[in-house]
Amino acid sequence: DHYKYHIGIKLIMDAVRECDRYINETKPWALAKEGHKERLGTVLSVAIEALYKLSVLLDPILPEGCSKLRTALGMQTVTLNLKDYTKAIVSGSKLGEVPRLYARLELPKDLEEQSV
Prior knowledge:
There is one protein chain. The chain is mainly alpha-helical. Helices cover 58% and strands 0% of the residues. The chain contains 5 helices and no strands. It has helices at residues 5-26, 28-34, 37-58, 63-72, 109-114. The chain is globular and about 45 Å long. It starts with a helix and ends with a helix.
């Protein structure tokens, strides 16, 4: 109501960081290597669902990147019900290769040293 978009974007980016933290802490690559299939399935299901929902929330701001991500997840449509939790991704769905959504920003050395 007050057009404080920056607050909404900050909250979404906090959720993006939480998703990243979850993936780094659960280490699905290690689960796969160690043969923990059931736990790996759970971790991937949670991560993929979170990525899809974040792509929907970020779509008005980053439409091209979010569209690429949803295509890789096998979900072209943009629908999300935040009031009632329902899984958007169907179990057993085939995932495509996730392309690099955006080029990594390389800071000049003098700016990089200032940011530390």
